[in-house]
Amino acid sequence: MMKFTKFLAEEASDDKLKHLEHVEDHVIHGGSEGFGHAFNTLNGVHEKLRGTDNNTKVTMKYDGSPSVVFGTHPETGKFFVGSKSVFNKKPKLNYTPEDIQKNHGHAPGLVSKLNAALTHLPKIHDGKGIYQADIMHAGDVNHEGHRVSYKTNTITYHHPADSEHAQKAVNSHIGVAVHTAYEGNKFEDMKVKQGHVPELQEHPDVHQLPIHHDLSKVSYTQADQAEYKKHLDNAVSEFKKMPKEGHEAVTKHDTPIKTYLNATVRDGSTPSHDEFAKHYSTTMKKKVAGVKTDNAKARHTKTHDDTMSHVKANKAHIEGAIAMQQHLQKAKGVLTNALNTNNTIGHEIAGAPTNPEGYVVHHNDKPSKFVHRHEFSAANFARAGD
Fold it and tell me: Which residues contact 179 (CB under 8 A, 6 or more apart)?
């Protein structure tokens, strides 16, 4: 199986960590190269869990909010904080509480957390770097007798009251999971230092959640390995059937295919070409209905008809890509279940115990999500009212 990697190219890396992709979705938007990256990312984790060292890195994925970027601006030399909007064409950089109010005053909750970040994150900062973190708590830690808990999104995190992390959470002003470092001499040229997870200074005012996952304590049985290999071999079998033009046809519809796949997570249905075509057609017909002039309706109708014709003509290719995505997802599920066997922090959704949200795996300078979509993605869709 490992010899197969010699035939696989991989996708290039992105510069800014704006959106993490599920590892299995790389084949949808990345074609042959995307499959190669997914295959090698999965195998990197597989080999690492079997005790073979390699450059693949596994970090925790936290369900915090918001995601903040902070550090010393390379050109002004001043400390700043901001949301992901710092990477906009017109970046919203906050050096003072007044900047935060000006840029984000429409969202009082965000203002409060950014002010806490501006006040306390310089205490753990190294004086020169730029980092990204999820805020896990900011003055909203709950004391529940035998435990300490906090929640910003879907998952409630908790620690035994007498544990080190519980004490840090209680005594701090802000809790963060620092997961990304950036580098560059100019702000607009900043790039992610992929796979480099920063270790910042300790300070009692800042509770830092552990970001590295201890793989030495993970259980990965022979049965797990056989199950993983079965699913990955099935994905490879589908990949070998797909011609180059098939991948090219699929990537023309990558966004609507991924939107449709998310819809199947919401409703629990099994994805297929025919249901995708119905979903895509319905979406495009809404655009036709949403325009007023006859010319616009005619234009959108033609786009719909041409697109549906292409989708129908490439049925076998789209079915193949969906099959690959599903097999890769099952292989990922085996690895994710294994990673979940070592868990030092308590997690709950709506009062029921659950696993961590997932993991971020860095392979070949590109991160991918390892998340049980039908568990956590569906929960997040429900929370958002989708």
Answer: 59, 62, 132, 133, 134, 197, 211, 360
